[in-house]
Input
Amino acid sequence: LHYFYEPLYHYSIPVLFMFAYYVHALHERRVKTAVMGMIADPKILRLLVKDLPEWVKESDRHQCEWMNIVAQQCMHMCAIFEIKLQTKLNETFDRIKPSFVQGMVMEMISFGTIPPNILSVKVLP
Output
């Protein structure tokens, strides 16, 4: 009698794993069905779409992550541009100031230290 049950013991572990996988897959399928039912609800779908960026909702908008990378890399050049802009503005102020004004000086120009973050670009035909 002992020899009769021994082969069943060797196959019971893989069968147990197969059953556990089946139960897990069944649970996953039920969860996916429930989620898809929620997304099919127009109220929930409107709430989800409301928070999406414009480049996802509209086909004429494109995400431009590469522009953010370029803006980050060009931030060190802003200091040079700030100095040149300040010089040009002060020269222009001296040239166009009215006679009753003694002087106009732009003391400081700053573009900040955080680069702009571009979310999307609209493409026009």
